[in-house]
Design brief:
The structure is a homodimer of 127-residue chains. Chain A is mainly alpha-helical and 127 residues long. In chain A, 72% of the residues lie in helices and 0% in strands. The structure holds a DNA duplex (30 and 30 nucleotides).
DNA sequence: GCAAGCCGCTTGCAATTGCAAGCACTTGCG
DNA sequence: CGCAAGTGCTTGCAATTGCAAGCGGCTTGC
C-alpha cells in the first residue's frame, strides 16, 4: 500500500476545486470542514482522515473513492481484475452463469490480445 | 456515510483474530501495530485510521476493503451493480464486447428473476 | 475617504491517535 | 518451588488532526 503523498493529494483537491470555480471558503462550507484546514490540506500540510476526505469529495461532487485512491487508502481496481472480481462475487448469479460469463470475458480478452499481437506484427513490418 | 461504530468494528476484528487462532501480540506483530493499541481497537476504545486498518487487515489476511466497510469508510458494492460498473469501466473491452457482456448479464438476471417468480408460484400452490 | 464583504492563510489549542514501558496473570519446565 | 515465556491490558506521552479566532489583502458600493 502506497504511502500517502499529502502534496499530490492537496494539489488534486485544489485542481478539482478550481475546476468547479469555487473558493476555499465555499468548498469548506459545503464540505463541512474548516476553511483554514482545507487550505492546509490543499498545501499538503495535513493528512486528512478518510472521514474528512469523504466530506471534501461530497463538497466537490466527486466520489469519495477517487480521493481515497489519491490518498493511498484504496487501490485502483484495474479494469480486467475488477470485472473478474465482480462476477466472482456476484451473489445473484448461479455457478453456471458465473462460469459462462467468465469464459466469455476470457474469450474477449484473448481476442483483444490476438488483435494487439497483430498490431505489433504490423508495426514490426513497418519498422 | 455511516458514522464509524468503534465497538462493532473492534468486535469484528477480534472475531477474525480468534477465528485465525492468533493472539493479540501475534496479530499486532504481523500487522506492524502496537499490541496495546490493537487491544484498545478491539475493545472499541480507539478509532484507527485507514492506514492502521489496512495493516490489521493484512495481518488478518483479509482485504483492507472489508475493514473499511466495517469502519464506515467505504460502502459495500452491491453485487449486480458491481458487475455492471466493472464492465462499463473496463478499458480493455471494445464497445461491441462491452455491450455483449452487458446483454448476457441482463439475460441471466432475467432468467434468475423468472426462476424466482416460478419458485414463488410453487410456494403458493403448496400453501 | 469608509464599511462591508470576500479572499487565503497563520496561529494556538483541545482532542485524538498510536506507541513504549510496564503490570498482573497463566502455563510449562527444571 | 522459581523461572521463562506467553497472555491482554493500563498508563503516560509525543505527534498529529481539525478547529476557532483572527490577520492582512483585495474589491465593491456609498
Amino acid at each position: 500500500m502506497a504511502k500517502i503523498d499529502a502534496a499530490k493529494l492537496g494539489e488534486y483537491i485544489r485542481e478539482q476545486r478550481m475546476a468547479a470555480e469555487i473558493s476555499v471558503r465555499q468548498l469548506a462550507r459545503t464540505a463541512g470542514v474548516s476553511n483554514p484546514y482545507l487550505s492546509q490540506v490543499e498545501r499538503g500540510l495535513r493528512r486528512p482522515s478518510a472521514e474528512i476526505l469523504a466530506r471534501i469529495a461530497a463538497g466537490l461532487r466527486i466520489s469519495a473513492e477517487t480521493l481515497y485512491v489519491r490518498a493511498g487508502i484504496l487501490e485502483e481496481r484495474e479494469g480486467d481484475r475488477a470485472v473478474l472480481l465482480a462476477i466472482s462475487e456476484d451473489p445473484t448469479l448461479t455457478d453456471r452463469q458465473r462460469r459462462a460469463l467468465l469464459e466469455i470475458y476470457a474469450a474477449f480478452q484473448t481476442e483483444n490480445s490476438a488483435q494487439q499481437a497483430e498490431s505489433h506484427t504490423e508495426e514490426e513490418h513497418l519498422a
